[in-house]
Amino acid sequence: MTTVLHIDASVRAVSNPNPEHDSISKKLARRFISAFKSMIDIDEYMYRDVGINPPQYITQDWIGAVFTPEHNRTAEQKQVLAQSDEYIAELKKADIIVISSPMYNYGMPAQLKAWFDQIVRINKTFDFDLARGDRPLAPLLTGKTLVIITSSGEFGFEKGGINEAYGHLVPHLRTLSKYLGVTEIFEIASEYQEFADHRHQASLTQAEAKADKIAGELAKNLKPVTC
């Protein structure tokens, strides 16, 4: 059984009248999903475009509802948490999570952060116990694989790169991934978009090849062994 949860975060569409406005991260994610589906049967594919259909931002009422014991919640509080409940239910079902995101102002889009805010929730995806000392938070989910697909206008955000200190998108995703129950992470990145030169094309070509390769590796690991 393989269930995929695919989250796209770019505010741009995959295809636009002006191809220069197409979302690179979404196209790479679509390529990965297509390659993966061609190699293995997916039992369920769940898709959310949070860039175009953003989640609700959490509010004081949302926090109040979260910290109200479930059996004491009012109908209004249950409604406030309905979207969060739906997102978490999808997450729990997923074996593989694919998150595609552009880098906006050196970090993740507000819409993607809003999705995480709805999901990282006490007694749902983590618990809190002061008996653990200085690290009281612990994730409740485990065993999931995360594929991170990113695009950026600049370059060198990797460890040791020229812009390592400014790259907050992937590190933030990696930090939050434990609350998604992630135990294995793969990364695909396209850079140099704003330079629009041969380096961008080379980076994009490399990212496409990596998407195909990772899809193949995951499909191979998931296929049952026959005798």
Can you tell me about this structure?
It contains 7 helices and 7 strands. It is of the alpha/beta class and 227 residues long. The strands form 2 sheets. Strands 2-1-3-6-7 form a 5-stranded parallel sheet, sandwiched between helices. A two-stranded antiparallel sheet has the order 4-5. Helix 1 runs parallel beside helix 7 (198-222). Residues 15-213 form the Flavodoxin-like fold domain. Homodimer.
Task: Describe the structure concisely.
Homodimer. The chain has 227 residues and is an alpha/beta fold.
The CATH architecture category equals: 3-Layer(aba) Sandwich
Q: Write down the CATH topology.
A: Rossmann fold
Write out the CATH superfamily name. Answer: Flavodoxin domain
Q: Which runs of at least 5 residues are low in confidence (pLDDT < 50)? A: none
The DSSP helix count reads 7
Q: Tell me the count of domains.
A: 1
**Helix/strand/pairing class, anyone?**
alpha/beta
Strand proportion: 15-25%
The radius of gyration is 19 Å
Strand order of the largest sheet: 2-1-3-6-7
Question: What is the top-level CATH class?
Answer: Alpha Beta
Share of helix among residues?
25-40%
Rough outline: globular
Instruction: Calculate the terminal CA-CA distance, rounded to whole Å.
Output: 19 Å
Give the beta-strand count. 7
Q: What do the pLDDT scores average to?
A: 95
**The biggest beta sheet, please?**
5 strands, parallel
Instruction: List the secondary-structure elements in sequence, H or E.
Output: EHEHHHEHEEEHEH
Pfam family, one: Flavodoxin_2
InterPro entries: Flavodoxin_fold, Flavoprotein-like_sf, FMN-dep_NADH:Q_OxRdtase_AzoR1, NADH:quinone_OxRdtase_FMN_depd
Function: Also exhibits azoreductase activity. Catalyzes the reductive cleavage of the azo bond in aromatic azo compounds to the corresponding amines. Quinone reductase that provides resistance to thiol-specific stress caused by electrophilic quinones.
EC number: 1.6.5.-, 1.7.1.17
